[in-house]
Amino acid sequence: MIIAIEGIDGAGKNTLVRAIRERVDADVLAFPRYDVSAPAQLVQEALHGRMGDLTDSAYAMATLFALDRHGARGQLEPYLDSDRIILLDRYVASNAAYSAARLRDDAVMDWVHDLEFGRLGLPRPDLQVLLATEPDTASQRAQSREQSDASRERDRYERDAGLQQRTYDAYLRLAGQGWAGRWLVTTDSDVILQEIANITQGL
């Protein structure tokens, strides 16, 4: 089973992943994979202002994010039709939400879907969970994290409060239309665990 945990920066994705793992035997993979992926490393450089005008193009950035995930496709495929579970800290929906927020146009959501699930052949998730953390709260968390950990300097996207709000709204639209499959909108790990059980039982 592939479960994607989605949300804006500071929403609490990592905390939720840890809470689920305390009660379910699951592997974890976080995107972007900055430590091992060349496309992700280019994204990181761009978001910290070291790649010229690359971030000006929403489509260029979205393509790099997509190529990072494509590089992990072999890691994800064994979880299809399996009793093994992997929790993804961000997945394809993050690309759709952030791109739509940047362009202020939901049409790009279909482009991301076709690029990642179609052309790049990424497996669709069994469940997508949107952490319903209000943008103001998430922003405060991101700022506190930056102040307490020098390695967690906020990038260009994280510093843009308007972008974070538009991204959260885009996520809500994705969840509302059932984009790329099943969604939950919650912050409650118990609700997520019950949904995992329902899927496992074929409900």
UniProtKB/TrEMBL annotation:
What would be an example GO MF term here? ATP binding
Q: What does this protein do?
A: Phosphorylation of dTMP to form dTDP in both de novo and salvage pathways of dTTP synthesis.
In this chain, the stretch annotated as Disordered covers 134-160
- Has UniProt tagged this entry with the keyword Transmembrane? no
Family assignment from sequence similarity? Belongs to the thymidylate kinase family.
NCBIfam families per record: PRK07933.1
Statement: the UniProt record of this protein carries the keyword tRNA processing: no
Q: What is its EC number?
A: 2.7.4.9
In this chain, composition skew of type Basic and acidic residues spans 143-160
Q: Name one GO biological process term.
A: dTDP biosynthetic process
Q: Which Gene3D superfamilies match?
A: P-loop containing nucleotide triphosphate hydrolases
An example Gene Ontology CC term for this record? cytosol
Gene name for this UniProt entry:
tmk
InterPro entries for the chain? P-loop_NTPase, Thymidylate_kin-like_dom, Thymidylate_kin_CS, Thymidylate_kinase
Enzymatic reactions: dTMP + ATP = dTDP + ADP
| Residue stretches making up the Thymidylate kinase-like domain | 5-176
Question: What is its EC class?
Answer: transferase
**Protein name as it appears in the record:** Thymidylate kinase
Swiss-Prot/TrEMBL keywords? ATP-binding, Kinase, Nucleotide biosynthesis, Nucleotide-binding, Transferase
